[in-house]
Structures are given as C-alpha cells and as structure tokens.
C-alpha cells in the first residue's frame, strides 16, 4: 500500500465488546473486524457465542460494554440498513401459510411503503431474484412444501432482495444433504464475487476448508483467523473446540477429524508421519495487526 492511500476501513468493527446478560456473559472485550467484500466463516463449538455475535451485529443481542459499528455508524439496537440475515431454517415455523413470493417480499419491509401489497416493479425484482436462485417456478408454492435446500434459497432471496452490503447467515448448511451444502456454499461464493460481504456460522469444517477464503476460529474469543489452509491445524482447532482434533492433508485435499482420539483410526491409512498437520498457523487473539493483509487478500 502506498503512503498516499488511505488504510482500509472495516465494514463491521467490534471494539472491546462484552455481550450477554449480567448473570451470563457470552463473550468479553471482543475486538474484531470484517472488511468489505470479505467472505468469512465463523466456526467453534456449540455455546461458543457464534450466534450471539451475529445477533449483536443485527442489534438484537444485549451489548453490555464496548462498541459495534457498521459502515462507520454505531449499531444501536436495531438491524442496520444494508444488512441481510438468513436464520437457521430449524427456527422457522413451517406451518405458517405463506408462499415463496410472500416470504421474499418480507425482505422489502424497510424499503417498501405498500407491503403486503407489491408494486409491479417489486414483483419483477422478486421474480428475477428467484430465477437467479433457480427457484422461480416455486413463487406461488407454499414454502412448507419445499425441500430443505429450496427453503434455504428462499430465505437467501429474502435477505438479498433489498441489495444488502452485508449478508449474515446462521448455519446455512445445517439440515441439508452434502450435495446441497456444496451448492449453497458455491452460490454464496458467486454472491460474494458480485460485491456482497458475507459472514456465516457453520459446524462443517471440511466444507469451510473447501469453499471459504477466510475463517475465524471462535470460542468466546478469537482463537485464530486467516486462510483455512493456514489456520486449520490440530493445535488451533483443539484449542478452539477444547477437544482432540486432527487435520490431515493429502495433496490439495484437507480433512478435519473430530472423533474421539482424533486421528488414531486414520493412522493405518495415512502414509508418512508428515501427512498429519502439525505445521505453522496464523494465530490472532484479536483482529489487530493484520488488517491490511486481511483486506487485500479478499479484495476482488
């Protein structure tokens, strides 16, 4: 970066944020930054505070101290403009009688003055978006009749219809088969390449390693972050999950094993001691100190 250029400005910034309730602190003094056009996965064990972190950005988790800013403006207890959110599909009431088009239209609530009625232009935007996501032929169908992967695409369309700068997804690959997992992550990659910043949570470490360029290992604090190929080591993941984790590499393929006595049952199949990864990793207890490389790595 030349001296004449301004340093990159984060899209999301946590500054010494303590979040939770007085009787239960979820995380404390968290500092973290997410930059425009970044595509990042937040991984860690259940109860680590991942969903709370997402909801803090959305303004719906109690912030006891510190500051969160979105595009330079403080998050103040309401969903920031230009943020789309895709919840866990397991939390949705699928018995509610609503069509695919009606669900997507809900994403216009901050910009439309006529909801639940749609203008011709709004309906056209919705139909074009559904077509892009390959579910246009389901526009009039009740959402409860769709498969898990199709339902996930509907809620993705709801989050995208208002053209957000940031897309937040809570476990977007949960409850769907492996083929659908890869399809969803591939689709998110395409959306990211069009300029949308993406932050998602997931428990599928192997899918993260294959599809995401940046990962944040989180357990009530940032344990490490960076390229999954550098961050996903046995040491870092074992510290993140407080459990034995093994990472194996064969050529360009990486596999994470989280079973009891991780890696022992692979020993007979792995040739050479160096097949198990005990190499160097990029560790950062906070996001400070590598903002420029973070931004430059993900600038398109």
Description:
By secondary structure, the protein is α/β, with parallel strands linked by helices. Helices cover about 30% and strands about 25% of the residues. It contains 9 helices and 12 strands. The strands form 3 sheets. The chain has a 6-stranded mixed β-sheet, with helices on both faces. A 4-stranded antiparallel β-sheet has the order 2-1-4-5, covered by helices on one side. It has a two-stranded antiparallel ribbon with strand order 11-12. The protein is globular, with a radius of gyration of 20 Å.
User: How many extended strands?
Assistant: 12
Between the first and last Cα atoms, what is the distance in angstroms? 16 Å
Mean pLDDT: 83
Q: What gross morphology would you assign?
A: globular
Which spans of ≥5 residues are poorly predicted at pLDDT below 50? Answer: 263-300
Assign the structural class, choosing from mainly alpha, mainly beta, alpha/beta, alpha+beta, or little secondary structure: alpha/beta
Task: Report the C-alpha radius of gyration, rounded.
Answer: 20 Å
Q: Which strand order spans the largest sheet, edge to edge or round the barrel?
A: 6-7-8-3-9-10
Largest beta-sheet details: 6 strands, mixed
Number of distinct helices: 9
Helix-strand pattern: EEEHEEEHHHEHEHEEHHEEH
Helix content: 25-40%
The proportion of residues in beta strands is: 15-25%
